[in-house]
Amino acid sequence: MTNSIPEFENDTNCFLIIGSNTTEAHPLIASRIMAAKEQRGAKIVVLDPRRIQIARMADLYTPFRPGTDVAIFNGLMNVIISEGLEDKEYVASRTEGFEALKASVAAYTPERVQEISSVPADTLRQAARLYAQNRPSAIIYAMGITQHTTGVDNVKSCANLAMLCGNVGVAGGGVNPLRGQNNVQGACDMGGLPNVYPAYQVVTLPEVQAKFKQAWGSTSDLKVGLTVTEMINAVGDGRLRALYVMGENPAVSDPDLNHAHHCLDQTEFMVVQDIFLTETAQLAHVVLPAASFIEKEGTFTGTDRRVQLLQKAVEPPGSARPDWQIICDVARKMGASGFEFASAKEIMVEIAKLAPSYGGITYERLEELGFLHWPCPAPDHPGTPYLHKGKFSRGQGLFHAIEFKEPAELTDEEYPLTLTTGRLMFHYHTGTMTRRTEKLHQEVPRAYVEMHPDDAANVKLGHHNRIRVLSRRGQIELDVRVTKRIKPGVVFIPFHFAEAAANALTNSAIDPVAKIPEYKVCAVKVEAL
Hints:
single chain, Barwin-like endoglucanases, 5-stranded parallel sheet, 20 helices
């Protein structure tokens, strides 16, 4: 996130929410948004194929065809520029590439965007005006934006719109992706990506490589590694022989699960380090029991770059241990040096030395202050609640002229419906924890699919309440909920249920840059059972 969560409640005057079921997936953040509306009259614009919970509070809600985000953003900018609502001073002083952007979005009139996305032209105009005329405005998104073959284009489009209206580098504005899990941001910050070392230091730069060789003694080659989806494929075709899986459940979470399971079966050696015997752990050669978050110490970095100290509340059960201890022991057994840490605090000292954005973050400061937002480069630095104040890290903000591209898989006569997936309030990710919690299990014990009444009539469900959903990759059987909250032509399946895994259907086509699979759009058909 470019901004901090408290700013939503205190400073933001308009929220543009797209690709985020905020109240169900991020309820604490949603409470800040609702407080801003109730206490200060902040505007809320929601774009989503489903009438999600927060849409009930929206000043404007519109459904749209999944996968048409770029066209919608270009249409919003078309309206803003044609009506002179852009922040002209900001554009002139802090950005470059505006003329190319202006020329590109000129073709995306509201009427053309309506044809592409099904968003009514007048509704698009209204959304553009609400966003442009109630600054500072914040764009809030989640995996509904990123999990597409055009995910990078979608994110760049968010940045285009925010800069166009001067909403970057100000309190309450910004481009704010809501992370899907509690320490995803921290994992990325610490180098949990195939192309960077900690603090996003690029692995292919010789000077960066030299820095970490000096610190660690040896490093990998000067090349980018594989993403999760690429690893699974590499196992399947023999390029990768072993997997070490930590806190991840690809046997349920990967796209095109039939293919993923086939690849996992080819693994010569797989280690799974987790707190429960997940579906993936059941396939492993070795399972290492890890401690849960209340059984260890360390730090979490939240979605808004907020670093907080984690205090152990109870001892780990049985032979479970903190992840860092397990990793250090495995590394030492393999003959590696530099893993002689005695505590998580000692690891944080090394982080501060090697990760510039964490340079001023210490346990002592976190104990005193409660939290710090990175970048926090020095011990006397107060932290940075919002980014890009005064200037961007590259100097000028760069507009990208982006053309709309269709999703990798479209509907046809055989597969006439579009499937999109997502989370529920009562379950989390692959259900590893929440489906073991009786109270949450009681709320939603079974998988289901949402379908519009018009589509249900076409399938001739009659009195049936279970259906079969099929794609070009697989099929599942599950309950059906007929509801007008879903757009006609679209069905929705939550991805928490291994016994009816939505990802048995989803497409493994990936974004060419970020390599993220297109979980949010695939073609399916439905049969009554």
